[in-house]
Each structure stands twice: as C-alpha cells, then as structure tokens.
C-alpha cells in the first residue's frame, strides 16, 4: 500500500521519523500586545496561534529525527526521558498555559514544550483540557513543562471555520441531565444530546432529576423507553437524596462531560455527588443572567470518589453540533437496523415510499416520540446556522 505523504512530517511504523521544524524565533515573532489581548479572549488565542502555523512552506527550515511514534492515529508521541517526570491530567487553561493535576494530587501551572507545538498537525489542539500528559517540574515547585501528550480517546470537538477545535479529550461518557419539572421535561432535548453523544462516539447516561416534583408513574415510561434503547437512566432528587448513590456509581472513576439545559440541577447534582465541589447553584428564575459569567473553555473537576466531571457551556449549548442532515438518522440508534431496508439510499424517512424506518415505526418497533424528535431535529434551525453549506443542500 502506498504511504501517505504529509506536508511537514511523515509517519513511520513505530520507528524513526523525519519532521520539518520551524525556526524557534518565528514562534515568538507575534506582537506582545497581541499575546496580552489574547489572554482575555481565549477563542481569539486559538485562532491566532493557528494562523501562526499556517505560515507556509518557507517557514520550514530544519529537520529532526524523532523517535517513538504513535502508530495508531495522528498524534506523534514524543520520546521523552521520563526520569523526573510526573504524569497527570490537564484540568484547565489559563491564557496560553494550563493547569495540570499530577496523579499524586499536586497542582502545577504548565507551559507547553515548544517541540510539541512544532510536531502538532494543528497547533490549536496541541494540548487540550482532559489530556493525559507527562510533565517535568521546573524551578518553582508549582511550575512545570508539558513534555508529552498521551494518545487521546473520547474527544469532544467542534468545527470552527472548517477546522476541528477539541473542547475536551478522554471523555468516557456524556451525562445528560433533564428535570421532570421546573423547567418542564423535554424528551426532544434528551434526544438531541443523545445524537451529540452518538456523533462523538461517547457513552451516554441519562439523569432525570427533581423526581420529588411529580408522581413516579409518569416517569417510568420515559425511563423505560431510554433503558430499552440501552442508555442507563438514573432518577434523582436532590431534595430527598433519591438516586444520588446510583449516580455516584455511574460517575466513579470515569471522565464525564455534563450536559443539560439551565436550571435542571446539574450543579446541585454534582454537589450531592461530591460536597467538596461546592458549585454555585441558582434559582431557576435567576438562571438567565448566569450564563454571562461563564467561560467557553472546559474545566475538569476531580471527584473525591475517583473520576472527573467537566461542565462546559460549549457542550450544553450544542457547539459540538457538527452534524449533517443526512447523518441524523444514524445517530438514532434504534433506526440503524431498519435504514438498510429503505428503498432509496438517501431516504429521509419522511415522505418516501418503501421506507424501512417508517415501516418499523408502524410496527411499533420505533417509538413515536423518538421519530417525532428525529423530525424536529431535522427541522432545527441549528442546521442552518451551524452548518450553512449543509443546511442549503
Ligand atoms: N425540587 C427540586 N429542586 C431541585 C433539585 N435539584 C436542583 N433543584 C433546584 O433547581 C435550581 C437549579 O439548580 P442548579 O443546580 O443551579 O441547576 P443547573 O442545571 O446547574 O443550572 P445552570 O448552572 O444554570 O446550568 C436550584 O434552585 C436547585 O435548588 C431537585 O432534585 N428537586
Ligand atoms: Zn427511509
């Protein structure tokens, strides 16, 4: 099989590789004021650093052999003398630096070894929140340098101007929080988050909160519907403590991204799972003003029972919605076996004849409310403003 030739680097089979390097000084050529401004605008920081990487072939001035190549993906794994290094996890970003919590619990503020930026295919994703990293403490006991980023899994990313922007890595699952009332229960919203989880290939756990506000029977049918699809469902009440232990069990030793609309009780739930988190909660009536103080960047919070949670507005507000209209059906997992029975390969499962999905719906093999969610999601404005090219087609 012919080997693919990358522009700046070539991958070998676990052996040595020659990479093109840019002159060090070129990475510093950026105006200091720009850097200062960027600290106040994280998104701009990402865009500016990425345009730096697009400086063209003329900037490739040196070549170097790097050993220890990750054979499986895009990431080049630097070979590092691990003596004196600690492994840990990136918990958040502070401007261009990041906070790392070492496995022994110590916290470090880290810079990123220039070589890592040089090796990266896309400099905006050199190091991201959630990454497992190898750090080398330097000078001050809380300062350190990231030497290596371990291979990632469970990446949640969004598309920014046609390029992938990773929001958080190494996510094991998405916790979808809904409330039975106040705000009202919205199965369609759960379905949208499920589509997002399927799109990013992460497991989903559904938490239906505030069960103290309604009688049990109306809830059971919803819990049963999602459980039948294979999604774990946990019913909780922070008011009387029901379900909290079950939820703890689901979160223990996993890295979980939390989603759900404002006011459903995400912060209250996390506080109940781990009181040390001490997250601010707010009356639903105040919720609208709360969003103004949030940051776009993800922040990883350690749980005292082991594991991590990440609560970011980007995940809640569907910034990860990089989905084409024609893909939506495949993210409704119970549709999948029936899609191949559709007469037309591009069947929308709406008006076509001989549609496997509609036949399954008529035979009660697909729930009516899920099919309605599918129709609503296809109808969403989100396809127009997140995906203009696809929205028009
Ligand atoms: N009755 C009842 N109220 C709850 C429960 N869980 C949370 N609440 C209340 O719901 C309100 C919103 O809770 P939060 O935890 O701030 O909700 P959130 O989802 O984190 O909201 P945002 O931070 O705006 O996204 C608070 O007044 C909580 O006290 C519950 O199980 N039962
Ligand atoms: Zn069809």
From TrEMBL:
Cofactor info, note text: Binds 1 zinc ion per subunit.
Amino acid composition bias (Basic residues), ranges on this chain: 1-16
Endpoints of the signal sequence: none
Its EC number(s): 3.6.1.-
Gene Ontology process terms (BP): ribosomal small subunit biogenesis
Bias (Basic and acidic residues): 17-34
Main location: cytoplasm
Cofactors (names): Zn(2+)
The protein's name in its UniProt record: Small ribosomal subunit biogenesis GTPase RsgA
Entry binding sites for Zn(2+): 342, 347, 349, 355
CDD domains the UniProt entry points to: YjeQ_EngC (cd01854)
Superkingdom of source: Bacteria
Residues engaged in binding GTP: 209-212, 260-268
